Amino acid sequence: MPHSLLNPEDITAYQRDGVVVVRGLFADHVEALRAGVARNMTDPGPYAAENLKAGEGGRFFDDYCNWQRIPEFEQVIRTSPAAEVAADLMQSDSAQLFHDHVLVKEPGTSKPTPWHQDGPYYFVEGHQTVSFWSPLDPVTEATLRCVAGSHLWEKPVLPTRWLSEDTFYPDESAYMPVPDPDAEGMDIREWTLEPGDAVAFNYGILHGARGNNSDTRRRAFSLRMVGDDARYTTRPGPTSPPFPGHDMTQGQRLREDWFPVLFRR
Asked: Which residues touch 128 (CB under 8 Å, ≥6 apart)?
């Protein structure tokens, strides 16, 4: 049986559409995550970024791979139902941690998060993947937007750098240009969300987020996991996150000392 936060229709929809909403996934952990985000912003890690150009209003902060140094994140990762829910959605016997990610848009940050797929940035291949994007503030406009079914497209979307907007890898031939889902009438899913709700989506889902034109900040915590079929794959350049010194080779399972298995059936 799936975890009580899910019903069988959620799993079917996730396999078909690549995206579902899971209400209350982190509902019991919102305060811990808010404390972790505050700690993260006070003490950014080596990958922290400010994603606005000079003259653009607001602040768009993000950082990732901090769970080992921010105790609130590790506590939530290990004690929340997220890993079991991930395994159910992926139809996997296990759920293995890939990384955490914090994204904060302060009030008046009109810049949207660009449309992108996570998969091309990662050194992971496989169908059994899931990202949870969970707001720590109520969101109506500044919410995540996902193109249903885009995880089944024949070619991945070209990865770009958010600030400079140049391409992430030197060879663009393996990728399709970044589409404009609004102009092209694609099936865009977005939800009004309460703190602790989560959008669950496959690494291949095209997604972005609106700017935050409200008068309150929008903090979001993302948690990425992989399932049984996920394997390390080489990319045509450094990946994001890079995980220097990982020593994995093509086709290898992600090393469990760096990427712990959080749930096994």
From this structure: 90, 91, 92, 226, 227, 228, 229, 230
Q: 80-126 pLDDT, tens per residue?
A: 999 999 999 999 999 999 999 999 998 888 888 889 999 999 999 99
Backbone φ and ψ for 189, nearest 5 degrees, come out as -105, 130
- How buried is residue 110: exposed, middle or buried, by Cβ count under 10 Å (0-12/13-18/19+)? middle
Q: 130 versus 48: which is more confidently predicted? A: 130
d(CA 168, CA 150): 20
Contacts of 59 (CB under 8 A, 6+ apart): 50, 52, 104, 105, 106, 109
Could you report the per-residue pLDDT of 192-221, keeping only the tens digit for each?
Answer: 999 999 999 999 999 998 888 888 899 999
Main-chain dihedrals φ then ψ at residue 131, nearest 5 degrees: -110, 135
Centre a 10 Å sphere on the Cβ of residue 114 and count the other Cβ atoms it contains.
Answer: 15
Q: Would you put residue 170 in left (φ > 0), alpha (ψ -120 to 50) or beta?
A: alpha
Strands (E), the chain: 19-22, 49-50, 60-64, 94-105, 113-116, 124-125, 129-135, 144-147, 188-189, 198-201, 207-209, 218-226, 231-232, 261-264
Residue the block writes with tokens 């006070």: 42
pTM, two decimals, is 0.95
Q: Identify whether the C-beta of residue 172 lies closer than 8 Å to the C-beta of residue 128.
A: no
